[in-house]
Amino acid sequence: MLESADMTTPWSRRAFLAACSGAVALGLGAAPPALAAPDEFAALRAKWRTLTLGEGFDPGAEPFASRLADLGRTARRYLGAMAPTTGSLWPDLPYADPDPDTDQESITYSGNMSTSHTRLSTLAQAYAQPGTGLTGDTALRDAVVTGLDHLHDDVYNADQPLYGNWWSWQIGAPQALLDTCVLMYDALSAEQIAGYTAAVDHFVPDSAVADYTGTSTGANRVDLCRVLALRGVVGGDAAKVALARDALSPVFPYVTSGDGLHADGSFVQHTWVPYTGSYGSVFLGGLGMLFALLAGSRWEVTDENRQIVFDSVEKAWAPFLYNGLVMDGVAGRAISRGLSATDPQAIQQDDHLRGHPLLASVLLLGQGASAAENARWRGLVKGWMRRDTYSPPLADPVLSLPNLARLGGVDKDPAVPAVPEPTGHRLFPAMARATHRRPGWAASLSMAGKRIAYYECGNGENLRGWHTGAGMLYWWGDTFAGGQYSDAFWPTVDPYRLPGTTVSRRVLANGAGGDWGAARPDVNWVGGATDGERAAVGQHLKGLQSTLVAKKSWFFLDDTVVCLGAGITCTDGTAVETTVENRNLGAAGGAPFTVDGRAEPVAYPWSDTLTDAGWAHIGGHGGYVFPGGATVRALRDARDGSWSSINTGGSPTVLNRKYLTMYVDHGTDPVNASYAYLLMPGASAARTRARAAQRDWLTVLANTDDQQGVSVRPLGFTGVNFWFGGTVGTLTASDPCSVMISEKGDGTAVIAVSDPMLMRTGLTLTWRRPVAAVTSAPATVVSAATGRSLTLTFGDLRGTAGVSQRITVRLG
User: Fold this and answer.
1) 663 annotated active-site
2) Torsion sign across C-alpha atoms 330, 331, 335, 338
3) What is the CA radius of gyration of the chain?
4) Cα(334)–Cα(322) distance, rounded to whole angstroms?
5) Catalytic residue among 262, 270, 352, 356
6) Which of 134, 223, 437, 634 measures 20 to 30 Å from 590, CA to CA?
7) How far is it, in rounded angstroms, from Cα 357 to Cα 362?
8) Whole-angstrom Cα distance, residue 761 to residue 758?
9) 811 vs 225: CA distance, rounded Å
10) pLDDT, average across residues 43-72
């Protein structure tokens, strides 16, 4: 059994239970505003215990009893393997770097140092939580203190220079260290606390938040503020807590470029990467914790701009949460974090397991929001939870106990109704993303442009995410396909055949283009127009390390996404393909596939060229229509892959999943190639056949390198992406823009217009349709002429950030 060389008096059972009950009694935001300083720090430590350990749950009831028992088993495993020696605390986590710098090897060593602190935090939780079998165990307490002293003396101290990944030293290790200090506070001497806090001061000095730039923005700034706040709480330093509170203020206001929240709901990190579902989760969760910690104290966060964060729950995060998952298109390199190479017992990460902590963060943040917001968010969370049948949140094996308790509380509250998924379309021009929700399904689109990277890799992660920004079109069903991208999709999918994308088959190296979103296409036209229900979206595509160029458009409608491509040209000397679909059919892969009413083979492998195909259907998934017929390649493919192939820290275990793929082969070095198809998520074979037979349902008005547009008369919809000014159908635009029109049954219409290039100082749009009056228009419309046609003249659109300008009219 491990012993510390400098032990303090063990907790008595009475003291331990008193501390726990006191922490629970405090609740969130319950600390009185005026306490003597020592008592106030004690109150904050108690509140942090509550926030990190959870409250309001019965440790003897499920799912908590099992989770606490699992925590105890994990702690025993860590305790049994703990072996302090120079250069490591655990043999499998060496942190002594023989050649300290910032290369991948050093990043691994620094990560091991951080993970060692995290394991000590896990041991401290097993000690402090009830029902672990180790609650209040003095030998465990001694081991934690021994571990803290060892890491301090050996690596994490005020004399140690930083190597490897800065994050490990400034965020990962100090957060875990300070959490452990709070949980073990009464077992630590003043000298020990002074040493630990001095180490934190060394690696996270006040200057870390002096400027809002570099690695001190967005979610990283929130994390640094958490470190500073807890360092102040543990060390009794009021100035540190005040600094942490004040240093949060730059994260609240909307930004117009780079890291942070944008007014359109985008969340960007690393300057160029959409990160709502990963760094955004850290951002939202960290703010919820800090708001709750400081509520009622003299350091309460009162910055009026914090309301922007509350507004963003529904504006920025809810659009990417669907039935408990958070969409992968805003998770950056986190999509490559699956099974671990270093911990074979770790659970595979996926979009659902990333989504569940976000649900809990919304609940925590709601405690500091208005009563109306809190009530509404609780209903949203309950709906997301109840609909997550693929990966029920209350059975989430990696969700922290506090988050599990928060979700469990709202789940069993009969006063909270489960709010259904909303319908509608959301465009996020600042991060080149879109989401579309209809009854029974949801879709998400990922693009890239001058302001948003093709993809992000870094730290050896997401090595083959090259084409995730080339128009990848994700979609999920409400009661089916919830695991489409969760079930080992990323390590097994062909990275050159991501659904919706147009790519060159030119071979790319792992990490091609550089780390941290370094590679961005030199294009401006990326975005679209929406009325909030339907949309016209477009992407001027340039391939990564390729000569490929193309124009791609998507028209998001009531039960269909119309997909057009044109101007597809390449001189790479390789084939160019547009992937209509690449459906993950799981390990079994038995879904039937029908083409024009003919059942295709279910055996693997299988492939065929479908000539003059009118429609296709994948059983249990959806339908596809090819207007006018198309030549489409189809295959069933059983693909092997491992997480280590896309992430150097991933498991080398080989996985196999079966895929059904449809793609248009544009040939080698195509010139002005094109495609057109309809995606109908959840449609039956009969409905798909019927849509294909409705030859007048869709009119493709244009599909060229200059314009792409469609008209759907039964819906009263017209959508056109003007890559250049010109005339398409009844619309004429003087300059590049995106336009969509929805004519209503009551004699009105909504027109949405945007400047995706952020370059228009003026724009004239004419709709040759009788219009009696313009009933509403934004200030960007400087004149409107009605009568036998409508002519709208716009002023300077550069300041609209690509957001749709909506005009309503009464038809003549």
Assistant:
1) no
2) negative
3) 28
4) 18
5) 270
6) 437
7) 9
8) 9
9) 55
10) 96
Q: What distance in Å separates the CA atoms of residue 267 and residue 220, rounded to the nearest whole number?
A: 13
What's the pLDDT tens digit per position in 146-203? 999 999 999 999 999 999 999 999 999 999 999 999 999 999 999 999 999 999 999 9
How far separated are the first and last CA of the chain, in Å rounded? 87
Edge to edge, the sheet with strand 717-722 lists 699-703, 707-712, 717-722, 737-743, 748-754, 805-811, 771-776
Closest of 699, 704, 689 to residue 625, by C-alpha: 689
Residues sharing a CB contact under 8 Å with residue 18, sequence separation 6 or more, in sequence order: none
* Nearest of 253, 555, 261, 307 to residue 428 by alpha carbon: 261
- Name the band, by pLDDT with cuts 50, 70 and 90, for residue 520: very high
Peptide bond into 605 cis (omega under 30): yes
Residue 143 to residue 122: CA distance in whole angstroms: 12
Count Cβ atoms below 10 Å from residue 696 Cβ, excluding itself: 8
- Helix, strand, coil abundance in the chain, percent, nearest 5: 35, 25, 40
DSSP states along 603-657: -SSEEEEEEEEEEEEETTTEEEEEEEEEEEEEEEEEEEE-GGGTBTTB----EEE
Residue type, 11: W
The crossing angle, in degrees rounded to 10, of helices 279-294 and 37-53 is 140
Question: How far does Cα 725 stand from its chain's mean position?
Answer: 35
pLDDT the model gives residue 22 = 34
> Catalytic residue at 485?
no
Q: At how many degrees (to 10) do helices 238-247 and 218-235 cross?
A: 170
Burial 167-185 (b: 16+ CB within 10 A, else e): bbbbbbbbbbbbbbbbbbb
Structure tokens at 339: 């099974």
Read off the amino acid at residue 378: R
Question: What amino acid is encoded at 704 in this protein?
Answer: T
**708, 702 Cβ separation under 8 angstroms:** yes
pTM of the model: 0.92
Give the C-alpha separation, 535 to 727, whole Å. Answer: 19
Cβ-contact 701, 691 below 8 angstroms: no
Helix (H) or strand (E) holding 376: helix 371-387
The SS3 assignment for 223 reads: helix
- Number of CB atoms found within 10 A of residue 592's CB: 13
Please say whether the beta carbons of 802 and 758 come within 8 A.
yes
451 phi and psi angles, rounded to 5 deg: -100, -10
Catalytic residue among 78, 127, 279, 322: 279
CA 151 to chain centre: 33
Distance of alpha carbon 62 from alpha carbon 77, whole angstroms: 23
Q: How far is CA 631 from CA 635, 675, 680, 788, in A?
A: 13, 10, 19, 42
Name, in order, each residue with C-beta under 8 angstroms of 775's C-beta and a sequence gap of 6 or more: 748, 808, 809, 810
Note the pLDDT tens digit of each residue in 107-124.
999 999 999 999 999 999
Q: Is the torsion defined by CA of 49, 52, 55, 59 positive or negative? A: negative
Token code pair at residue 262? 């944008």
Q: How far apart are CA 374 and CA 366, in angstroms?
A: 4
Buried b (16+ CB within 10 A) or exposed e, 517-527: bbbbbebbbbb
Q: How far is CA 375 from CA 313, 326, 662, 741, in A?
A: 13, 21, 44, 35
3-state secondary structure of 552: strand
Three-state SS string over 94-127 comes to CCCCCCCCCCHHHHHHHHHHHHHHHHHHHHHHHH
Residue 279 is a catalytic residue? yes
Rounded CA gap, 256 and 263, in Å? Answer: 8
Q: Are the beta carbons of 616 and 595 closer than 8 angstroms?
A: yes
The one catalytic residue in 117, 127, 150, 220 is 220
Which residues are CB-neighbours of 85 under 8 A, at least 6 positions away? none
Residue type, 247: A
Q: Which two tokens stand for residue 650?
A: 């991933």
pLDDT band at 340 (very low <50, low <70, confident <90, very high): confident
